[in-house]
Amino acid sequence: MSSTGRLYGLGIGPGDPELLTLKAYRILKQVPVIAYPTLENGKALARSIVADYIRTDQIEIPMPLPFSVERSSQPYYDQAAIKIAQHLTAGQDVAVLCEGDPMLYGTFMYLFNRLADQFQTEVVPGISSTFASAAMLGAPITYRNDVLSIMPATLDAETLRDRLSQVDSAIIIKLGRHFAKVKSILAELNLLDRARYIERATQANQQILDIKTVDPQAVPYWALILIPSQTQPQ
Amino acid sequence: MSSTGRLYGLGIGPGDPELLTLKAYRILKQVPVIAYPTLENGKALARSIVADYIRTDQIEIPMPLPFSVERSSQPYYDQAAIKIAQHLTAGQDVAVLCEGDPMLYGTFMYLFNRLADQFQTEVVPGISSTFASAAMLGAPITYRNDVLSIMPATLDAETLRDRLSQVDSAIIIKLGRHFAKVKSILAELNLLDRARYIERATQANQQILDIKTVDPQAVPYWALILIPSQTQPQ
């Protein structure tokens, strides 16, 4: 084991390059190999977040991943794991760049499940866009005995309605083309007045909009709705 | 406004000093005044996390806060806000140190509610112990359409049972003397085999224990139980 490389799942935060932790920054600077997911159009959000920190002599492994639910993602993850394993076996440390936190709805978890039993693995937590959004909105999320529910907008309407019908506070992520569905459920449950909308939290093009004025056709994947606690004790 | 100081809610993470963000580190280094909660015994976890980064010429405002639910905390927060406001009015920036993330069950939110409408305020998100625990446990939390519920163990048994009876994944925080109650509910709901226990995640004295061997009398406030997703797709 000692001559093989170490695998890092590196949480790099929601977008602002200053929201890397000191630890993620140190590891990013010292590893010889970095890997990161890329969209089909070649864009790589994770890489763009840390672009200023990457050295020219670092080996880069772009990992094309399917963001369409219609296709099985298994072969994509298998292939990425094989490439990463080659470097680890050759004794090189590899850092997988993870937007937000590696363990929450992340690409890294699929690599973790394939590689962590064969190679020394360290997960470095990152700032999640869920909580970063609360900071940007100036909206405390939960007080005292509140329960927080984090859920993806991709859930079917019935499940969303059921889960949202009893929340103290909630964060609904991955809005994209599911915005209209979510908005109508929030209206139904009298939650629309409490709902706060933010796109691309902490990124250079962050937008905070009144949820009632949002164009459903223009909502990106990286948008979320925060329903803060009503408790607000003194 | 321009001559008054700026208030920072500074997320400093769960314990490892390297889990500060680059941004929190920069602000901590540059502000003339820092404030942090202290327990009745004088201990200050937040200060101890960043002890190595504090300059000797920085003014420190310890904020004694009641951690007993029996007492009203309002006068404590009022008093802390008055002290902080004095420095802000005098044109000095003040950083309030927040364990974990400032907007999640945090002391800072009470100061935010008292001061943010009078002074320029910036909240810097921090690594929450909730997600950091998943990294330390090597346990992916949520996949795809999973809903994550974060809840305090201080809830009454009936509410806890109700909320836990339908979770995809859950994080139960603030265990302390509520451990036995939570464990028995998890057993009842057949969740005990999935439950992972961790104390003081990322702190120097972090402990990961088999939940079945934990001594209920020895569980600290900073302990939590993580119930990871069962989904685990390929």
Write a structural description.
Two copies of one chain form a homodimer. By secondary structure, the first copy, chain A, is of the alpha/beta class. Chain A has two domains: 118 residues, 3-Layer(aba) Sandwich (Cobalt-precorrin-4 Transmethylase, domain 1); 99 residues, Methyltransferase, Cobalt-precorrin-4 Transmethylase, Domain 2. Chain A is 28% helix and 21% strand. In chain A, β2, α2 and β3 form a beta-alpha-beta unit. In chain A, α3 packs across α4. The first copy, chain A, is elongated and about 60 Å long. The N and C termini of chain A lie far apart (55 Å). Chains A and B meet through α1, α4, β5, α5 and β6 of A and α1, α4, β5, α5 and β6 of B. Chains A, B: Keywords: Cobalamin biosynthesis, Methyltransferase, S-adenosyl-L-methionine, Transferase. Chains A, B: Its EC number is 2.1.1.130, 2.1.1.151. Chains A, B: Pathway: Cofactor biosynthesis; adenosylcobalamin biosynthesis.
